[in-house]
Structures are given as structure tokens and as C-alpha cells.
Design brief:
The structure holds 2 protein chains of 2 kinds. Chain A is mainly alpha-helical. Chain A is built from 16 helices and 4 strands. By secondary structure, chain B is mainly beta. Classes of the chains: A mainly alpha, B mainly beta.
Chain lengths: 449, 1082
């Protein structure tokens, strides 16, 4: 049986290689979208927390971008623009390198390294390799060689971002005696995620605390205090939403932007996980929606993903820096303690300190980055969450979507107002810094926009 | 080659000929017995393990003679199938009389079934529990009153027992001793919003889920739960129930095992119709997902011991792919914040100690891990006089499979659950099977059990649940009947027959308690006590034949049998022949004095009121070592505080110094004429940032005044941080002045003074235990030579690198008149350094490899042969660690992921192979790349250490070993030493300190040993049940709870003798707790 199959395969290979002439390999934007999607699906399966997910997105994009920029003068390489990134190896002009193909190969390769379940990516990769090889073996081999060389180069740079070191750093120590301090929340009381994410090397921002937001309202359970009022506001909003019901706009918004990669559900004898994409992944999805709507070509698509994912990655570093600085307790802890011990937020409280809202910071930054690429008032239909059973929502601009993503966290009962409002500002300030300091398009091309 | 073929042929032949039999039990099938009951459960889209959490718990089984022909009959309850009643016709032939008897049942979902004489007419009735009111389950608990003619009349409503709640089982007891049988109804909670949260949910009664105590008021049962103090909350996941007179005051008490997060309940009967739930007082910890439980006296002390089952797998594959214990921070939250008790996911064996806590010994007894376990039944199956243990096992699907929870469930079921609330069979099929064989253990002495599964019984592949005991073939030994899920019920017929002797006792007690429920029997033969108390509802969802059974091995005569009736009278039978069934009625009874069961212990120690003014409470800081070094085997930061005794104000009276933990200052208590008074010592308190782990008070500068030397540790400070420096304070007038020391940055463990160089001043041995953030690295320990005003470090590389030292003594082991040094420590063997002209030279005096996790050492002639032996405190064998000299516990120490920080990987042997102790989540929490190597828990499960890590990185790692975990002593054999372990009672916890003193004033010194230790992750549990012991000789060791010591659930650090008005007292220093002071009663 196996022998027979082998014969058939060999025959096919022979036939293919004999009969087909070498033809150029054409790589389009949709090939790149597909690679982004594949890695995204594995990320959901493997369960990456939002900050780690932002790292998984960004490095493959950078590798692809740097290759693409070798060939297209419109785009400026990121060497010396991103912390510690030097020029990638130059391509050998004597070889028939297809730079788009090399970019895609580098993207897949770094994605494979960053996720856990490599098999899915390997299967995908190998089937593509098979096709490309059959189309044009020499072009494929040359592109692959260069793509992997750059992937290795970026990989070396990536490995020095302190991620590995932060794995061994201390876990967050819970101090449930201090009422202002964050503590694990129901239902699964997970440890505080990534307490050392501020030690990850940033990309464009100078340091994790460059966009350190104003402190949250001082903790106080005095009824007149701002903090108490904000706590009460969260409680009141969800109480109101309970009466309005699941169909209310606010609950729809909260659920649409939930973006919780690991939601624990208790059912029968089980507690099990329901998994969705992260906030960063949602914005990568919006980037894809925009690229498709703008009919961006391969190079422009790679550029858009790269810029957006850099802004998001820096946003998480900045946000996590503040989260484990202010260490603020979540509304659920206090509401259960003081108002109603059966109260549950609309969304499940994610396992890290409250201030500032991660989704708000990431959305703020991503909105600015996307606006810089596609322009303001770029209306789009966001269908990113459809595979997760959620509807399509339409927005008139990226910044409008970011505002909605931010306020969704209050409707969801997992953030106070300050975390949302200050958070989205933090993200936008950071986003502006990123787009102002990144020179990704040459001046001549900028003028064309 | 031919050999193999022959072998295979032989195996085939063996398999082919008939079905296999165990050595002790055979399993006849329905073809010969006629018992064809099958508890078939049918999964539906709206009824399965995801909809109903106890979908796989199975039905019930009850054994008893319903037609008074002296042959026990069998009743099975079915979950979805009809109940069945089989009449025993003798010779293991049974007849199904369900239809004519009218007991097939009407409820949708039946659970436990029990036999008992509810109406007091001497005939066994049948009570069948049901789950009603969820998942469309209808009906009520049914009560079949025995009409005496093989027919029954359902009469639950008439008796007030027709509950439509979530019942799992019920049991009979006469809690108010009014002569009739009352009922405890065990109900179970389901996961709802209300069932999670603080533990005090249990105070808020919930009709459906709450347990009920039902008082028999002349044939009508009244719910007295609330007034009796029985919890009935939304979080009572009641699966196990046992009745026994645990505290032996004549009134039956109640033990309830609760599944999931709710604590088990231990109700002590106050004798006035009320109960006092006091689990936390008497149990240091319990099983977490408690299932069935059972009671028997397993150690011949006449007190009922308890087993409670959980679901810890023994096999590596399910072990590593099932959800385990909580994370340590979650545990802290659950206990500190939500009010629950310590619970761990393994079976627990609780040894009842009079006036004391329960000694929990499941791990050292060898019965902690029996996988998905339902029903434990203690009985003397081989009739050798020791209680053996049967455990029924198995679940069709493992809902706690980590791959299912994290990877499979969501992708397969997510949408369905969210959108339709339905789950299809396909999704359920993705859970791995948990069909684990039943276990049987042979009871031995010293609290140990031997696994006889696959030997006494054939290893089955069924899902066994409720199990009942009885003598089905009337041959005197005990048989088992098991209600099997989706298969024919199983009979285990005992074949010991005449190979060992027995006695069966049945009671003919006056109605309404004809069967004598609650009667106690003490059997004495050749000084050997066996004790039983008759309660028929045992194990899980079942009731056994109402009789008492004892085994006697080859003994032909029983010296006496004492029967204590429920009404607190007793009668004595003498010279009883074995191998008969006695039917006993009360005759010539006399009042029984329960005080004789609780003799006043001979108290040696008595707590002193007000602690003589020593109101010292040690507070441990919040630092958790595992947050920084996630894979280390135990903490280091909790080894304090230091305690030192000495005259600190030069008034001739000895005072007390207590070290403080990090950022908490030390304390000094000065001895006055009437009490101890705290005195602020400003210069010393200034160094409060340091954690004082070791201290001595001694005249170090030879000025006639005592000075203070402090060893700092705590494992939090690292590298060259100043708080790691030890401190030296010289007493000047009334103050202490800091003096210079050489710089060395180490975590101190012990300081011992001795004039090593014989120059008239005291030199010091300062031992260190660990390197902060680099566990596994050997710290430096030093000899500090006293040169008048200065200490200097002596060169001694052997001693400097001796290991992770925990304790040391200066003792002349070679009898040359000069004190030598012995050090003990962790991952090392006791090391002997002889003092040769002021130089310490290591000599090997051990005849075996003896690396241990040693914590303490003291010299003592324990075998009374005139030479000095050394008692050694070790980790104990009541642990998930495992070590022998053949298969040492191994710890690999290296920077496995090359990120600049080292890791330690502990591995233990199982069936000849080494496996990492911890699971994928723990390991990959530190070594992320393992998640790439092992995408699923199934991939990881069953992988040996060589498969988890590559060979090269293991070879490059430093290997540390432990060969012995037991505490014991080094027996002096003419200057060489041989290790002898202590008995089991001293192996339940690490022994952390010893004290030598003549406590009982008999002119001879004894050793007081103390311990317990909590610095481990929940995976290991909590070493909390050692109540200390006074060691008089190797054969005379008295447990602390019998002597008045209150050490259980406390982690003892130091024992010292202090005095006041020249009267001696025992001072006990406890980590994170109040110090205790005892007066010596003799």
C-alpha cells in the first residue's frame, strides 16, 4: 500500500518536473493575508496572552517588511529605526530571488518559531513549498534561501528582546491584605499575566514608561471619592444593562470587543476554555479588512501589517508597564466585596491588574497607525469576529472603532472609566510617536498619498 | 525465536482457557449466578457529563437478608434502568424477584440505595435515593417497606422521606440514642453561580442541595438539620458519608466527604441533639474532590480511622494529563480569603489519635493514588487479623483531562454550547477513557498497605462504582458486590475459605433497632485488639450486610469479645471459638463507662497561662520562593525564626532572643523574678531588614558578658546584598554594640560555637543552606576562628563546600576527648569532621549512601548500649518524593534554557524509570520551549526525564541525589554508623528539631522531637499532622498528643528549656505562629 502510494507520488513528481516549464512564482497580498491568518489560528489554539500575542505578530511582519523593502524603494528599511535592529543581509543579485516570496517565507518561518503547535504551520508551509517548487524550483530555492537567512537574522535580534529572560522572572505576588491591590479574579483565579512585560525591549518608543499615564484616581472606598464613584459607575452600568438585556447596544459592543483568548466556562463536571483572538489580533484583522478594501498590493499590505503590529507591540509594553506599576484592583473584586457577592461582569475579568485598559491602549495605538496608512474617515465593515460567532460591525473610521473598543471594557464591567479614557489617550500618544518616528515610506511616495 | 513463539503460544493458551481468577477473589458471571443487572446509562444531547456533573457516578447496591433465610440478598439501583432485587438461593445462585417484589422504582435517576429497618419490625427495608428537579429528572426518594413475604410497599411519603432533591445517599444512625434509627440524607450540589464563593455559603440552607438530618419521631421523620447544626448550603457536594463514634463518647458522629471546593464536614455529636462541625480543629488537611469514605480501626488501638477517596492517578500518563492541585497563590486565596480548609487531590488516610488531631498517612501508607476512585471498603479479606482495603475505580470519560479542557473542548463544542446548549457525542468522545482497574491492598503493620491489585484480584477494565460487602456464600469470608456502569454487576467471591479463621457476629437487638446499628465490638486475642462498630452504609452509595466480621489467621481461640450496645451497656464473652457466626442479644449487660476508652493521658507537658509573659508571635513575610524559582522542591525563606537563650543583661538569669523575619525586628525577652518582659534592644532592632534564621548567645570576646551572633538568611536577598551579612553584637554595659565580621554573603542555617583550636575562646561554625535565586548551588559554610577581638575565616574547603547544611553538632564521635563536628543537610549525607589539632578533617563513618533531606541531628544513646548514636530528622516518607539507595530521588541543576538563570528538575523513579515530578504547566512555566516540544499533555504524559530533556543537557547538569527520606538514627557500631529508620508515626512530617532533657524526671534524658513543614506547593500537600514525640529508647516512643503537646498543624522550629524561678519550662518556637511555653508536670 505504502509502496504503491510512493510510486504514484514519484510518478507525479516526475510528470510535473518533466512536463512543466518553469514559470514565475506570483505572490499576492492574499498570500500574505493567508499566512497571517494561519499563524493567528494557531495562536488561538495555543493560547497566547495579549502581550505575548503582540510579539508573535510583530516579528514575522518585520522580517517580511525588511525583505520587501530591499526591492521596493518606496519603502524604507527599519534598520536603525527599531531598537537594536541592524541591516538585514543583502540579497545576492546573481540569484533569481523573488523578494515577495522570500518575504512570505520569512514570515511563515518566524511565525512557526513563535507559536507552539508547529505542525499546523509546517503542513501549511510544506504544501506551499511543494507548489512553488513545482512552478519554479530555482526561483523558489533562491527565495527560500534568502527568506530563511533573513528570518534567522531577525530571529537572532528577536531572541535578544529579553522574552526568554522574563520567563524565569518572579511571578506576581498576590497581597490580598491590601484592598487597593490587584488580586486574582473569578472564576479561575489565574496568576497575574506577564508581570515583567515592561522589560521586553521596545520597538520605537524609548522606554516602557515613556508614555506613563497619569495615576488612577487614588484608591478609596469613601463615597465622595473619585475612585468610589468610578467603581459605583461600573456597577450601575452593568445593573442597567441587566435590565436592558443581551440585545442592548452596550452589551453587543462589550461582547464584540471581548477578545479574551482564554475564557473559562464551567459546565456540568467541567471547567473548560473557550478561546478567542486577542485585542491585538482583532486589530491585525481590521488591518486586513482595510487592506482588502483599499485593494492594497503585496508590498503595501506588508507595510500596513508591520506598522500596525509595531504600534500594538509597543502599546502592550507601555500598558503592561503601567498595569504592574499601579497594580490596581479590578471592579469585580470590589463589587463582590462591597456591593453584591453574586455580581458578575458581562465579560470575564482578564487576569492582570486593571489600570490602564489593555484594549484601550492597543486600540488607541492601532487606530492611529491605521489612520496614518489608510487615512481618516476610512469606513469599513469589521467582520473579524465572525468565526467566533459574533456579528459584523461597521465603523466610519479607525479612531471611532478604537473609541468603541475602549468604552466596551466599561460596558463589560471589567474596567473603570479612568482606565478606558486615560488608556485610549495613552495608546494614541504612543501611536503618534510611533508614526512620527518611523520612516517607512520615502518622501516622494509620501507626497503621493 | 522459537522460545518466543512457544511463549506466545503459552500465553494464548492461558488466555483462552476460561476466565482468569485472582488469588483471593474469583468473579463468577451472570451465567452461573443469575445476576444480570446492568446499569446502562444512555448519553443524550441534553443529558451527559457536560449537563449533569454526576452523570457517571453510577447507581447503588445494598446487601442484606430480606427474607430471613440467613442468606444476604442483593438490591441494585439503576440510574436510568430499573432497580433489581435478587434473592440469594444459596450456592451463589440468585433469582430476580424485582417484579413480584415491586421495587423496580419510579424515579428518572436513582443513585445510592441502602437497606435498613426503618419501621423497626426486624425486617430490612430499602431506601432508594434519587436526583430530582434538574435535567428533567422526576420522582422522589423511594422507601420500600418490607412486607415480610418477598414483597414491598413504597411508603416514602408516609414516613416523610419522599424527598425530591439531589440525593446521592442516605445512612442510618441513632444520633439521639432514643432507640430508633434516624436518617442522614446526603445531597449533592451542582455548579451554579451560588455554589462558588466564600465557604460560609454552607450556612445558607438550600433545600435541593443541602444535607438533611432526619429525626425519627415514631415513624415520621422530621428535618432537624438546622437545629442540630448540620450544614445545608448550595456548595455541599456530598458524595461520601460515614457514621462512627469518632471521639468515643457513646454518641455517633458524622463524617461527610464533599466533592470539589467545599470542605469535608466532621460533625461531633454533642449528645444533646446538636452537632459541632470541627473539621479544621482535628484535620490539618483533607482530600479535595472527596468521593466515598470508610471507617475502621486499622492500627489496633480501638479507635476508628478514616479513609477518604479522591482521584489522583497512579499511572504517569493520566497523572500528567489530568488537572492537579491548585496553584500556591490560589490556595492562599481560597484559604485566607474564602475561608476553605487545606485540600489536596489525593486519597487521605486519617489515623484517629485520642484527644488529638488525625494523623494523615495516605502517602506513607501507600494508598494515596488510586485514580478515579469511588468506594473504599476496609475489611479483613485474607483474615490475617489486619484490615485490608478494597477500592472501586473508573470513569468512562475523564472530564478533568487537560487537553480536553484547553484544546479539544473549545474547538469542538464551543459554538454548540454557546448557541444551542447542546453537546454532541462526538465532543464527549474526545475525552480520554478513565477505565482504571479496582485496587486491593493488603493491610500490614506500621500503617502500611501493600498493593495486591492484579494478584488478589484480576485487573478489570470496567467502571466500578458502589460496592457492598457481605458473606454471599455463607462460608465465613467476605465477598463484594459492585454496581458496574454499562456492564453486568460484578461479584468478587472470596476464596480464603478455610485457609484462615474468622468470626462473624450478628445482633439481635430489641426493636426498633433489631440489627443493632451502632453496636461496638472489641475483640481481644493474644493481646491483639480488633475493633469494629456496626454501620452498614459504607463506601459509596451502598450498604453492606449488617454484621461484624473479624479475621484471626491461624488463631483458634478468641480470648474475649466485648460488645458495647448502643444504649451504653456492655457484655463480655470469653473464650470464643473461631469459624462461627454468633448471634448476640443483650444479656447480663452492665453499664459501660466510656471513660475507659478515653483514659486520662499521662500528661508530661502543660501549657502555661500567659506564656510566662513571652507573647512572641513570629510573623513570616509574604515572600513566596516559588514565585521566583518556580521549580524548586521546597521553600527556603521560611526556616526562621532564630531562637537563642542566654543572659543578655548580665544579671545571671538567662533571657530569650527571637529573630525576626524580613523587615520585622527581632525581640528580646528578659527573665525577671516573676515573668519574662520584652525589652527593646535598639541597636539590634535597627537591623530589622535582615531575616534572623540562626542565633547564639555566648561570651565570644571573653569579657565575662554574653554576646550575640546572628545568622541572616531568608533566601530573598541575593548576590552581595548587605542584609545577607551575619551580625555580631558585643554586650557592653546594658547595650549591645555591633562588631566587625568578615564579609560573606550567605543564607545562614545554623551557628554552633566551640573552642576548636583550644585557645580558650569560642570559635564558630556558621553553616549556610542555600544560594538565593540559585537553588541547587552549594553555598559556602565557614569556620570563624576567634582571634581575641576579631573573627577570621579559617581555610577548610571540604567543610566550606560540604553542602546545603541545615544543622550541626559539636560532639566527640571518635572518643579522643576533643569535640568533633557533624553536619547534616539537604541533598547530602551526614558528614563527620574530626577535630585534629584544631583542624577539621572529614572522615567517612557511614556504611551506606545516605543523602537525605536532613533537617536536624542530636546525639543520644537510643539503643541503650552505652555508646552515642545520632538521631536524625529527615523529610519523612509521607510525601510524593520517593527515594531509595537503589533508586535515589534525583535533582538536575543547570541553566536548561540558557537564559542566565538556573533551574532544578526533580525526578523520581516509577517502575524502574525516572519521570519529572512536576507537570507540563509547571515545567513550561519556566522552560517555555517544552510547549513546543510537547503540544499536548498527552504528548507529555508518560515521558521519562530523558525524553523530556535531551540526554546532553541532563549530562551537562549537576546531579544531586537523595537516598533516604525517613527520619531515624545512626546506630553506633564501634565508631561506624548504620542508619535505622523510625516507626511510621515519626515519618508523617519533616522532623525539624530535637531537644535533650529529662522531661519525666526519671533521672534519664529523653529526646523530644518536633516538626511539620508547610513550605511546599499544593502538589505536595501539607506536612501538618506530627504532634511531636518523646523518644525514650528505640522501643519506647510516645506521641506528643498523649503527653499534652499541641504541635499538630504547627511548624515547629526550635525547642528550648528555659527557666523561671529555677523551675524549668519548655519553650517552643513556631514559624508564623505564637511561641508556646509548657511546664513540665513531673
Amino acid at each position: 500500500m505504502i509502496k504503491n502510494q510512493l510510486v504514484i507520488v514519484l510518478t507525479i513528481i516526475l510528470l510535473v518536473s518533466c512536463n512543466k516549464k518553469e514559470e514565475p512564482i506570483v505572490i499576492t497580498a492574499s498570500d500574505f493575508h493567508e499566512s497571517v491568518d494561519k499563524i493567528g489560528v494557531v495562536m488561538v489554539h495555543d493560547i497566547f496572552s495579549p502581550p505575548v500575542a503582540s510579539r508573535v505578530f510583530v516579528y514575522p511582519n518585520i522580517a517580511a517588511y525588511e525583505i520587501m523593502a530591499q526591492q521596493n524603494e518606496t519603502y524604507l528599511p527599519l534598520e536603525n529605526q527599531l531598537t537594536d535592529l541592524t541591516a538585514i543581509p543583502k540579497a545576492d543579485p546573481s540569484k533569481p530571488i523573488n523578494f515577495k516570496l522570500a518575504a512570505l517565507i520569512a514570515h511563515i518561518e518566524l511565525g512557526r518559531r513563535l507559536i507552539f503547535s508547529e505542525k499546523t504551520i509546517e503542513t501549511y508551509r510544506d504544501s506551499l513549498y511543494q507548489i512553488w517548487r513545482s512552478k519554479n524550483a530555482s526561483e523558489f530555492m533562491a527565495s527560500k534561501e534568502y527568506g530563511l537567512e533573513v528570518a534567522n537574522f531577525i530571529g537572532v535580534w528577536m531572541d535578544k528582546d529579553n522574552y526568554n529572560q522574563t520567563r524565569t522572572m518572579p511571578k506576581f505576588t498576590v497581597d490580598s491584605d491590601d484592598p487597593s491591590r490587584w488580586q486574582p479574579t473569578p472564576p479561575s483565579y489565574m496568576d497575574g499575566l506577564e508581570p515583567h512585560w515592561n522589560k521586553i525591549r521596545p520597538f520605537v518608543i524609548n522606554s516602557a514608561d515613556q508614555f506613563k499615564p497619569i495615576p488612577p484616581p487614588p484608591f478609596s472606598m469613601e463615597k465622595e471619592s473619585n475612585f468610589y464613584k468610578e467603581l459605583k459607575e461600573v456597577y450601575d452600568i452593568t445593573q442597567e444593562l441587566v435590565t436592558k438585556g443581551d440585545e442592548s447596544e452596550e452589551i453587543q459592543i462589550a461582547k464584540f470587543w471581548d477578545c479574551n483568548p482564554y475564557l473559562t466556562v464551567s459546565r456540568g463536571h467541567l471547567m473548560f476554555a473557550i478561546k478567542k483572538i486577542t485585542p491585538g489580533a482583532h486589530w491585525i484583522g481590521i488591518c486586513q479588512v482595510a487592506c482588502k478594501k483599499a485593494d492594497s498590493d503585496f508590498d503595501e499590505t506588508v507595510y500596513a501589517y508591520t506598522k500596525t503590529s509595531i504600534a500594538i507591540a509597543d502599546a502592550f509594553i507601555s500598558c503592561w508597564d503601567e498595569k504592574f506599576r499601579s497594580n490596581l484592583v479590578r471592579p469585580e473584586t470590589l463589587i463582590n466585596e462591597h456591593f453584591d457577592d453574586n455580581w458578575k461582569p458581562v465579560l470575564q475579568t482578564p487576569p492582570f491588574p486593571e489600570y490602564t485598559s489593555g484594549h484601550s491602549v492597543a486600540s488607541g495605538a492601532a487606530g492611529i497607525a491605521l489612520t496614518s496608512i489608510f487615512g481618516d474617515n476610512f469606513a469599513f465593515d469589521d467582520d473579524v469576529e465572525v468565526p467566533y460567532g459574533l456579528p459584523i460591525r461597521s465603523f466610519t473610521s479607525f479612531n471611532q472603532a478604537a473609541d468603541e473598543a475602549a468604552i466596551s471594557r466599561m460596558y463589560g464591567g471589567i474596567h473603570y472609566r479612568a482606565a478606558v479614557e486615560v488608556g485610549v489617550k495613552q495608546g494614541r500618544d504612543l501611536g503618534k510617536f510611533v508614526i512620527e518616528n518611523l520612516e517607512m515610506k520615502s518622501n516622494s511616495s509620501k507626497n503621493n498619498q | 525465536m522459537n522460545k518466543y513463539i512457544a511463549l506466545i503460544g503459552l500465553i494464548l493458551v492461558l488466555l483462552g482457557c476460561g476466565h482468569k481468577e485472582g488469588e483471593l477473589f474469583k468473579n463468577p458471571t451472570s451465567k452461573t449466578t443469575g445476576i444480570d443487572f446492568k446499569n446502562i446509562i444512555t448519553e443524550k444531547n441534553d443529558l451527559n457529563i457536560l449537563d449533569y456533573l454526576y452523570f457517571y457516578n453510577g447507581g447503588g447496591v445494598a446487601l442484606g437478608d430480606i427474607n430471613n433465610d440467613d442468606l444476604p440478598d442483593i438490591f441494585f439501583s439503576g440510574n436510568q434502568v430499573k432497580n433489581k432485587l435478587y434473592i440469594n438461593k444459596g450456592n451463589l445462585q440468585f433469582e430476580d424477584i424485582t417484579e413480584t417484589a415491586g421495587v423496580s422504582g419510579n424515579s428518572t435517576w436513582n443513585t445510592g440505595s441502602v437497606m435498613g429497618d426503618i419501621n423497626g419490625d426486624g425486617l430490612l427495608d430499602i431506601y432508594v435515593c434519587a436526583v430530582v428537579g434538574i435535567n428533567g429528572f422526576n420522582g422522589f426518594n423511594e422507601l420500600y417497606i418490607n412486607n415480610g413475604d418477598n414483597t414491598f410497599t413504597e411508603s416514602a411519603a408516609k414516613y416523610g422521606l419522599d424527598f425530591d432533591t439531589y440525593s446521592s445517599n442516605a445512612t442510618f444512625l441513632d444520633y439521639d440514642l432514643d432507640g430508633d434509627l434516624d436518617l442522614y440524607l446526603l445531597n449533592h450540589a451542582v455548579h451554579t453561580q451560588e455554589s462558588f464563593g466564600r465557604s460560609d455559603i454552607r450556612n445558607k440552607r438550600n433545600f435541593q442541595t443541602g444535607d438533611k438530618l432526619l429525626r425519627n419521631d415514631g415513624g415520621k421523620f422530621t428535618d432537624v438539620s438546622e437545629q442540630a447544626g448540620i450544614y445545608g448550603g448550595a456548595n455541599g457536594y456530598g458524595l461520601g458519608i460515614s457514621i462512627a463514634d469518632f471521639n468515643q463518647d457513646g454518641f455517633p458522629d458524622i463524617f461527610v466527604g464533599n466533592d470539589f471546593h467545599e470542605d469535608d464536614y466532621y460533625y461531633i455529636n454533642n449528645g444533646d441533639g446538636t452537632f459541632n462541625e470541627c473539621l479544621k480543629t482535628f484535620f490539618g488537611h483533607t482530600s479535595q474532590a472527596s468521593m466515598g469514605n470508610d471507617v475502621a480501626d486499622i492500627n489496633h488501638d480501638g479507635r476508628p480511622d478514616i479513609i477518604s477517596l479522591d482521584m489522583l492517578p497512579e499511572d504517569e500518563k493520566p497523572l500528567k494529563s489530568s488537572e492537579g492541585d491548585d496553584d500556591i497563590q490560589i490556595q492562599k486565596l481560597r484559604i485566607g480569603h474564602y475561608g476553605y480548609h487545606y485540600q489536596f487531590t489525593r486519597n487521605m488516610l486519617y489515623i484517629n489519635q485520642q484527644n488529638g488531631n488525625y494523623l494523615e498517612t495516605a502517602l506513607l501508607s501507600g494508598i494515596a493514588a488510586t485514580d478515579w476512585s469511588w468506594s473504599p471498603l476496609f475489611a479483613d479479606y485474607d483474615q490475617d487479623g489486619e484490615q485490608d482495603l478494597f477500592i472501586s475505580n473508573g470513569i468512562p470519560k475523564r472530564p478533568n483531562d487537560l487537553d480536553f479542557i484547553k484544546f479539544v473542548s473549545s474547538e469542538q463544542i464551543q459554538k454548540k454550547i454557546i448557541n444551542t446548549k447542546l453537546v454532541d457525542q462526538e465532543a464527549i468522545d474526545l475525552m480520554p477513557s478513565g477505565k482504571v482497574h479496582n485496587y486491593i491492598f493488603k493491610g500490614g503493620n506500621d500503617l502500611r498497605f501493600e498493593d495486591k491489585s492484579g494478584n488478589w484480584i484480576v485487573n478489570d477494565t470496567l467502571v466500578s462504582g458502589a460496592t457492598a460487602l457481605g458473606d454471599l456464600d455463607n462460608d465465613g469470608d467476605l465477598d463484594l458486590v459492585i454496581n458496574i456502569l454499562n456492564n453486568e454487576a460484578a461479584l468478587y467471591i472470596n476464596k480464603i475459605n478455610s485457609k484462615a479463621n474468622f468470626l462473624k457476629i450478628k445482633f439481635d437487638y430489641p426493636n426498633p433497632n433489631h440489627f443493632g446499628i451502632g453496636t461496638k465490638v472489641f475483640s481481644y486475642s493474644d493481646g491483639n485488639l480488633q475493633y469494629k462498630e456496626l454501620y452498614t452504609v459504607r463506601g459509596f452509595q451502598a450498604s453492606s450486610e449488617p454484621m461484624i466480621h473479624f479475621g484471626y489467621g491461624e488463631k483458634e481461640k478468641i480470648d474475649s469479645i466485648k460488645i458495647v450496645w448502643p444504649n451504653k451497656t456492655y457484655q463480655l464473652l470469653r473464650n470464643i471459638a473461631v469459624n462461627q457466626t454468633l448471634i448476640i442479644s443483650p444479656e447480663n449487660t452492665k453499664p459501660f463507662d466510656y471513660n475507659t476508652l478515653r483514659p486520662e493521658p499521662e500528661i508530661l507537658f502543660k501549657k502555661v497561662k500567659n506564656n510566662l509573659g513571652i507573647d512572641f508571635k513570629h510573623e513570616e513575610d509574604n515572600y513566596i520562593d516559588f514565585n521566583r524559582q518556580k521549580l524548586i522542591p521546597y521553600q527556603i525563606s521560611d526556616r526562621g525564626p532564630a531562637t537563642a537563650i542566654g543572659d543578655m543583661n548580665n544579671d545571671g538569669k538567662k533571657d530569650i532572643f527571637f529573630g525576626g523575619s524580613k523587615h520585622i525586628s527581632s525581640k528580646v525577652y528578659m527573665q525577671t523574678d516573676s515573668k519574662y518582659i520584652e525589652k527593646k534592644m535598639v541597636t539590634i532592632a535597627r537591623d530589622s531588614i535582615k531575616e534572623d534564621v540562626a542565633a547564639i548567645i555566648a561570651d565570644l570576646n571573653n569579657d565575662g558578658k554574653k554576646d550575640l551572633f546572628l545568622g541572616s538568611g531568608g533566601a530573598d536577598f541575593y548576590n552581595q546584598m548587605k542584609p545577607l551579612l551575619d551580625s555580631y553584637y558585643i554586650q557592653k554595659d546594658s547595650t549591645f554594640v555591633a562588631a566587625k565580621l568578615p564579609d560573606y554573603f550567605e543564607n545562614a542555617s545554623v551557628i554552633k560555637a566551640n573552642d576548636i583550636d583550644n585557645d580558650g575562646d569560642l570559635d564558630l561554625f556558621v553553616a549556610n543552606n542555600t544560594v538565593s535565586n540559585d537553588f541547587g548551588k552549594i553555598p559556602n559554610s565557614y569556620i570563624l576562628i576567634n582571634d581575641k577581638d576579631n573573627f577570621s575565616l579559617a581555610k577548610n574547603e571540604e567543610l566550606q563546600n560540604a553542602g546545603m547544611i541545615t544543622d550541626a553538632i559539636w560532639n566527640d564521635f571518635n572518643n579522643d576527648g576533643v569535640k568533633d563536628l557533624i553536619v547534616v543537610g539537604e541533598w547530602m549525607q551526614p558528614k563527620f569532621f574530626k577535630n585534629q589539632d584544631g583542624t577539621l578533617i572529614e572522615v567517612n563513618l557511614l556504611d551506606q549512601k545516605l543523602n537525605g533531606l536532613w533537617r536536624s541531628i542530636i546525639p543520644f544513646d537510643i539503643d541503650k548500649d552505652g555508646d552515642v548514636d545520632y538521631l536524625l530528622g529527615n523529610w519523612g516518607s509521607n510525601t510524593r518524593f520517593k527515594a531509595t539507595s537503589k533508586y535515589p530521588m534525583k535533582m538536575y541543576y543547570a541553566d536548561f534554557d540558557l537564559n542566565g538563570n538556573t533551574e532544578t528538575i526533580v525526578t523520581i523513579e516509577k517502575n524502574g524509570k525516572y519521570y519529572p515530578l512536576l507537570g507540563l504547566d509547571e515545567l513550561s512555566g519556566q522552560l517555555v520551549n517544552l510547549r513546543k516540544k510537547f503540544n499536548t499533555y498527552e504528548d507529555f504524559g508518560g515521558k521519562t526525564i530523558d525524553e523530556v530533556f535531551d540526554k546532553k543537557s541532563l549530562e551537562n547538569a549537576i546531579l544531586l541525589e537523595v537516598h533516604e527520606l525517613q527520619s531515624g538514627y545512626l546506630e553506633n557500631k564501634k565508631g561506624h554508623f548504620n542508619f535505622v529508620p523510625f516507626q511510621s508515626e515519626l515519618q508523617v512530617s519533616p522532623i525539624t528539631c530535637f531537644l535533650n532533657y529529662d522531661f519525666d524526671n526519671d533521672g534519664k534524658d529523653e529526646i523530644l522531637a518536633a516538626g511539620n513543614y508547610f513550605g511546599v506547593i499544593p502538589f505536595h500537600g501539607r506536612f501538618d499532622s506530627f504532634s511531636g514525640a518523646v523518644i525514650k529508647s528505640k522501643d519506647e516512643i510516645i506521641s506528643g498528643h498523649q503527653l499534652g503537646l499541641d504541635f499538630a498543624q504547627r511548624s515547629i522550629r526550635h525547642l528550648n528549656i528555659i527557666s523561671l524561678n529555677s523551675k524549668p519550662y519548655l519553650l517552643v518556637t513556631i514559624n508564623d505562629d505564637m511561641a508556646q511555653v509548657y511546664e513540665l508536670k513531673k
